[in-house]
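Hey, can you fold this one?
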Amino acid sequence: MIQEEVVDVQEEGMMRVEAQRVKTAMGRLSRLQADAIRLAYFGGFSHSEVAKLLDIPVGTAKTRIRDGMIVLRDSLGVTS
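Sure. Predicted structure:
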């Protein structure tokens, strides 16, 4: 029983560190990119729904999301 509690605390600590890394990386985005990514990835909206919510063309929504994801990938050190 004690072993499970240690693992949970360790996992929680790792999740907090990772959440802080993502928060810091999100801070490197433009406001427009961050808004689009929050809607798409954290809100679960499709590109067309993001475009409608932000009152922008779908292509613009896709570009903001793609460009923002490039910044996040580079900030987090993710490799393809």
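Helices lie at 2-26, 31-42, 47-54, 58-76. Let me know if you want another pass with a different chain boundary.
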